[in-house]
Specification:
alpha/beta, Rossmann fold, 13-stranded mixed sheet, hydrolase, globular, single chain, Carboxylesterase_B_AS, two-stranded antiparallel sheet, hydrolase activity
Amino acid sequence: MMVGKSRWTVLVLLLVVVALTACSYAQTVETECGPVRGVVNEASGVAAFLGLPYAQPPVKHLRWQPAQALSRDLGCWKGLRVASAFGKACPQQYMPASVMSEDCLVLNVWTPNRTLHSSSSEKLPVMVFFHGGSYVMGSGHFDGSRFVNKSDHQVVLVSINYRLNGFGFMALDELSRHDSRGVSGNYGVTDMIASLEWVRKNIASFGGDPNLVTIFGQSSGGTAALMLLTAPSAKGLFHRAILESASTRVDMSLADANAQNRVFVKKAKCDGAADVYGCLLSLSTDQILEAIPWDEYPYYNHPTDMDIPIFEKGPGAMLGIVDGVTIPLPVDQALMAGLFNDVPTIIGTNEQEIDFAPAAHLENYTIPEFQDYIRKRYEVATAYNGLPQKAYDSIGADIHATCGQLLLAKNAGMGFKSPVFHYSFGQDPSHPFCLMPDWCAKYALHALEMFMLFDDYSAYMPTDYVPNAVDNKMGDIMRHFWLYFAKHGDTPSNDGFAKWWPINGNNVRWPEDYNTYRLTVKPTAHRGWKRQECEFWNANGFYAFNWNS
């Protein structure tokens, strides 16, 4: 999801305001690196500890190296650290230079203030959130106190920054030769693993249970959770996983990634240098950002993600890759084999993902005009009926996300001993949701479930959307299921809603058939969800157009 420069500037100002809303200091907490003091939002009773380093700054010789643990001599602090403001975001397009830095590996903790004063040994479940943004933009900076407050103070929330774009996912032969793993790329994934190591060592001091950690993320953050399921070095660091609108294709080899990224070396004017690695290491932050191929092959900006694809226009750069070490196997193969982190997992998508910023605005088309539009693109009539814009958005969602996610969930259901749950989020916003200058979404768009879950409709970008009672109810339902899952690794029973069964549960004819739970304000259970549509798209080669970051 790409966001314009002016909207980033406004969002930065909003985040400054968020950081200032708390009005008193929290109790001092001891961490392995030293004491920290956060701030308490008096209205919600939630304590926030912001901008806590979890790894050494990835600068100078550590720029393209796996995340390095903090130590008393490297990265820790002396005396009391006041954790009342967000740290710098990781470098990315459009964001003002003053609020981003390569020294960006920080995390934020929100915890009920009462847990800091409690003598009880009982700890709360921990949920670690990975932000989206196609692995090229975004940060962990949002108001997490709302989520903790709306969850009845029954959870500890952590969000993180991780390296992005060319800083976090550049794979090149020259980098591999200097990387301690012997490979390159997936630096952002090593950051996530380092953050989970930090949680394991420190979260008990904030009232969280290090043995009850759920990783979850939206969009590329969901893909991050997927990659961690298949990362051997993440084993034992988390105990549940939730993948919201994740990409399903993490299958590019290190060799192919190197070939894909040669254009970066050329644009950086390091091609042909006697010491290519030294040349790259000498580049400034701005020079690296300028050399990244945003809008040319391999398209780091993913320009077709919100369109119905045609075969002349493939997906953008694949940033998370199979490097052979951090990620040893393509993720679908790893899941089917039950490798490497077999934990209870939720996987799902939104029914009109691309309504976030659709490439085609068809709201004024008649149904015959829309059917003609589809036939001209694919030379075939499809089973999609109804309003043209919603049908267009549904086709795009199925091709890019839904059908791949179904395959992924079924693979996990076959390989995992732990339960795997599949969902389809189908709740529309209560009124048009204007995230883009020229578009107001009306349907179950990309990220809507996250906005409702966090009760924060400006989590990614500023918006004047004001939720009503229906939106709030959907947020309550999301938190109900997510928090129960974080506590128990299962879905609730006898809670007044239809039962949400594992994808292969309740005597389903597995693997020919499967269970899906449709999340709306009136949740419903289904069998064989989207079977006809997905069989058509997958049989005709459209799996290649699944999102890949």
